[in-house]
């Protein structure tokens, strides 16, 4: 038996394609967890990164927080949250958000910081308000980098969201956790393959978003 | 009128960038701030649109203290052009230029129509409208910068070394364009440069600043050249200020000699009649009246003038339009020592020797007849 055989067997078994433990349902759960975590992380990381990047203040504090957050092991955090909060979505979301905020925050900060200062100076000299300078001058130019921060956060969330299964939740982690427990390696490999495919889909989505959202003037001059 | 009244700027680190500066900037003319790097030019300019707030002193526009005006509306009433143009790379050229009208609430269509009008005014081809900044040369980007600053038709234009980053030929073109635009629009322009030649070429008034942000001299360019206030200004003007001052004297007064000119199809008699002991050379002109070159009279054989064997004539000057400086330059460049004078169409109207030009220079200086600024 090799890995490919496992993959074939897993995806060939029609029992895996429907029902509560079927691939569509588990995939949907996994996507829901991931999107929720990414949404929360972006809601924290983007505004803070944009504002600190624009003002240039708080960069050191930000780097410190990001490094500390990166040092936290997601699984350890999950166990801790489970002990503190019991079962539920929250103990899962916290480690995922903690994982995703640093790349979003740090990249957004750096992206805004690295925007050429002369257009910003020109914009200010023309009488643009600060929020408008940030949103209309800095963000469009920083967008490729900002999106790349969101992309790495998304990839990390997709692969780490498997931990949800440890606290009795669903998602693709279910196959891995149950498979390991049941010594059903076909399931383990099948689950891992699905996570990998989802990560690739995520990459594709970000590529497409970047194509559409970034001005050709920025894409070519970068 | 913009009035800078004993303004001092001390930065938080203690640097005194501008020290008790007072200037009256006349309306509808170009006032140049010039001085060595770090002498406080940018700081002064940026105090006018409140990008920098003075530590002491006041700045008023038509009597109104600018520190009491809402900062963004003040800035929207002044065009601002910076060294690297500072274009928005994510916006097309036309949308870059439309920025301030859009800020002022104009509709997109109206702002774009205005932007296209300005592209024409600053000499940008309409085909560039939909391009992005990276697709333009440095000189074109700078023109976009100027157009963007003019878009909402502000009475005041602040320019901080706008042409410093482009090569000398492009810079000259941009300077001429600015003078032309200024003739048409009559803005109140404050122009910062470290280049004294640029200051003299563009300025109606020139303020020379010395390091430490103190005013060394404030005068029209011709006066700066003829009577520098002190040795700092004199050094800053450079070694050839006498020559440069000649730019302010017209070549109109030069008496042209019309005899030493022969057409390329002249007869032997015509050549002989032009020969004159005072003019050892004859200038041969083409059938279109343009200069071909100099020759000694005895080398000219009627009907067989070989134009490729003629001596080069250097660069002619336009009599009456160009300055004495251009005439002197034409004489110095000519191997025979004679400058060729042409009319506006480039047809030869005479020749003038270095000696005659020298006499004209002496009498011009003696009369101090240096009030009119002359092109070239
Ligand atoms: N933000 C600032 N903080 C401290 N010093 C400054 C600042 N901006 C300029 N300076 C200093 O003020 C002086 C004048 O600067 P500036 O106005 O930029 O001169 P210029 O434009 O003539 O080169 C220089 O010594 C410069 O180092
Ligand atoms: Mg400067």
Automatic annotation (TrEMBL), chain A:
The keyword Transport applies. CDD domains: TM_PBP2. The chain crosses the membrane at residues 31-50, 62-86, 157-177, 189-209. InterPro entries: ABC_transp_perm/SBD, MetI-like, MetI-like_sf. It is found in: Cell membrane; Membrane. Signal peptide: none annotated. Keywords: Membrane, Transmembrane, Transmembrane helix, Transport. Belongs to the binding-protein-dependent transport system permease family. This is ABC transporter permease. It comes from Streptomyces glomeratus.
Automatic annotation (TrEMBL), chain B:
Keywords: ATP-binding, Nucleotide-binding, Transport. GO terms for molecular function: ATP binding. The keyword Ligase does not apply. Residues 2-237 form the ABC transporter domain. InterPro entries: AAA+_ATPase (IPR003593), ABC_transporter-like_ATP-bd (IPR003439), ABC_transporter-like_CS (IPR017871), P-loop_NTPase (IPR027417). Pfam families: ABC_tran. The keyword Lipoprotein does not apply. Belongs to the ABC transporter superfamily. PANTHER family: OSMOPROTECTANT IMPORT ATP-BINDING PROTEIN OSMV. This is ABC transporter ATP-binding protein. It comes from Streptomyces glomeratus.
């Amino acid at each position: 038996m090799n890995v490919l055989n496992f993959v074939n067997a897993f995806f060939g078994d029609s029992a895996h394609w429907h029902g509560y433990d079927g691939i569509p349902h588990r995939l949907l759960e996994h996507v829901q967890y991931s999107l929720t975590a990414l949404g929360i992380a972006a809601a924290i990381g983007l505004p803070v990164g944009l504002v600190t990047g624009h003002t240039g203040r708080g960069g050191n504090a930000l780097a410190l927080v990001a490094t500390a957050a990166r040092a936290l092991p997601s699984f350890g955090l999950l166990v801790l949250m489970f002990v503190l909060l019991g079962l539920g979505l929250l103990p899962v979301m916290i480690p995922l958000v903690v994982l995703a905020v640093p790349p979003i925050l740090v990249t957004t900060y750096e992206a805004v910081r690295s925007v050429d200062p002369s257009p910003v100076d020109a914009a200010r000299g023309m009488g643009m308000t600060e929020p408008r300078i940030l949103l209309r001058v800095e963000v469009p130019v920083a967008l490729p980098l900002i999106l790349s921060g969101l992309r790495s956060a998304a990839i990390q969330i997709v692969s780490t969201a498997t931990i949800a299964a440890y606290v009795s939740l669903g998602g693709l982690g279910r196959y891995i956790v149950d498979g390991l427990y049941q010594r059903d390696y076909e399931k383990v490999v099948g689950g891992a393959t699905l996570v990998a495919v989802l990560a690739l889909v995520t990459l594709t989505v970000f590529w497409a978003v970047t194509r559409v959202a970034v001005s050709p003037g920025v894409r070519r001059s970068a | 009128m913009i009035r800078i009244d004993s303004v001092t700027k001390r930065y938080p680190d203690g640097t005194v960038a501008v020290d008790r500066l007072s200037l009256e900037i006349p309306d509808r003319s170009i006032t140049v701030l010039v001085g060595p790097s770090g002498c406080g030019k940018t700081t002064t300019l940026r105090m006018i649109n409140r990008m920098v707030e003075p530590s002491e002193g006041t700045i008023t526009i038509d009597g109104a203290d600018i520190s009491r005006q809402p900062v963004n509306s003040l800035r929207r009433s002044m065009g601002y052009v910076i060294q690297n143009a500072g274009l928005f790379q994510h916006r097309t050229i036309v949308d870059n230029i439309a920025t301030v009208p859009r800020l002022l609430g104009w509709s997109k269509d109206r702002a774009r129509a205005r932007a296209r009008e300005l592209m024409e005014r600053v000499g940008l081809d309409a085909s560039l409208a939909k391009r992005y900044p990276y697709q333009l040369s440095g000189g074109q980007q700078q023109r976009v910068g100027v157009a963007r600053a003019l878009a909402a038709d502000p009475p005041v234009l602040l320019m901080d070394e706008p042409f410093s980053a482009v090569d000398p030929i492009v810079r000259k073109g941009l300077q001429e364009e600015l003078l032309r635009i200024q003739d048409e629009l009559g803005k109140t322009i404050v122009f910062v440069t470290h280049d004294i030649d640029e200051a003299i070429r563009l300025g109606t008034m020139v303020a020379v600043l010395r390091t430490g942000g103190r005013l060394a001299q404030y005068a029209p360019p011709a006066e700066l050249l003829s009577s520098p206030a002190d040795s700092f200004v004199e050094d800053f003007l450079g070694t050839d200020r006498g020559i440069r001052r000649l730019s302010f004297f017209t070549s109109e007064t030069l008496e042209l000699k019309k005899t030493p000119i022969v057409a390329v199809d002249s007869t032997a008699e015509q050549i002989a009649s032009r020969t004159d002991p005072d003019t050892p050379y004859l200038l041969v002109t083409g059938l279109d009246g343009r200069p071909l070159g100099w020759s000694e009279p005895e080398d000219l054989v009627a009907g067989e003038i070989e134009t490729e064997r003629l001596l080069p004539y250097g660069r002619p000057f336009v009599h009456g339009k160009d300055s004495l400086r251009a005439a002197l330059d034409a004489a110095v460049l000519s191997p025979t020592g004679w400058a060729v004078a042409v009319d506006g169409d480039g047809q030869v109207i005479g020749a003038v020797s270095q000696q005659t030009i020298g006499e004209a220079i002496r009498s011009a200086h003696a009369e101090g007849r240096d009030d009119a600024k002359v092109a070239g």
